[in-house]
Design goal:
Blueprint (H helix, E strand, L loop, with lengths): L3 H19 L1 E5 L4 H11 L3 E4 L17 H16 L3 E10 L6 E2 L12 H11 L7 E12 L2 E13 L15 E3 L11 H7 L1 H15 L3
Parallel strand pairs: 1-2, 1-3
Antiparallel strand pairs: 3-4, 3-5, 5-6, 6-7
Helix pairs in contact: 2-6
The structure holds inosinic acid.
The site of inosinic acid has 17 residues, from strand 3 and helix 4.
Length: 216
Amino acid sequence: MSDVYPVNFRHCIFALLFFTYIMNELIFATNNPDKLREIQDLLGDSFKLNCLKDIDFSEDIPETGDTLEINASYKANFIYRIFNRDVFADDTGLEIDALDGKPGVHSARYAGPEKNSAANIKRVIHELRYARNRKARFRTVISLIINGKEYSFEGIVKGTILKTLHGQKGFGYDPVFQPSGHTQTFAEMELKQKNLISHRAIAFKKLVGFLKKGIY
Ligand code: IMP
């Protein structure tokens, strides 16, 4: 038995090293551990994801573009230029019909630079106080740079902005956003349920489908 065990063990080590060698690596230009876990879960073992912390990058990447597309692309290119490695970045915004698509790209800082979600929601509720049309959508854009070429993926979920807050879960505008076809806001849903239908999950699934096809 003692002769067999070391051979099997060596095989395992060899297989592990070989797998690590052929396994593709991707940088996700984020330091948000929830997002990282979410997409690693969707990707499975075919790609190993590294976040900015994993590559010892601690600077803030500016998000000063006028569109989600520009910001996602800027972030991905910023990292690509420094590290010359395959990378993707995302940007999300809440687009409200009655506010001509605002807060959109300014969603995080709608009520000020503090990125305060309660204040952001308060401002949105105030601005919609006379609105009959309360339709809105969350939109996520992902920019991927792989083998030196850039690709873009979009995820949208439509819904309604409620007049009052409902639910404690989630983050950002979740307590006032009720996705179409549902009776709960995102903040009333379990994370698993939100992740089945969310803008981010839709965009990520498109990215994962593209990566799994391997035609890039
Ligand atoms: P980010 O691009 O993912 O950082 O998102 C920008 C801002 O959009 C966040 O700071 C939130 O205010 C808002 N946001 C993004 N995703 C969600 C979500 O799933 N629910 C609620 N708000 C969100």
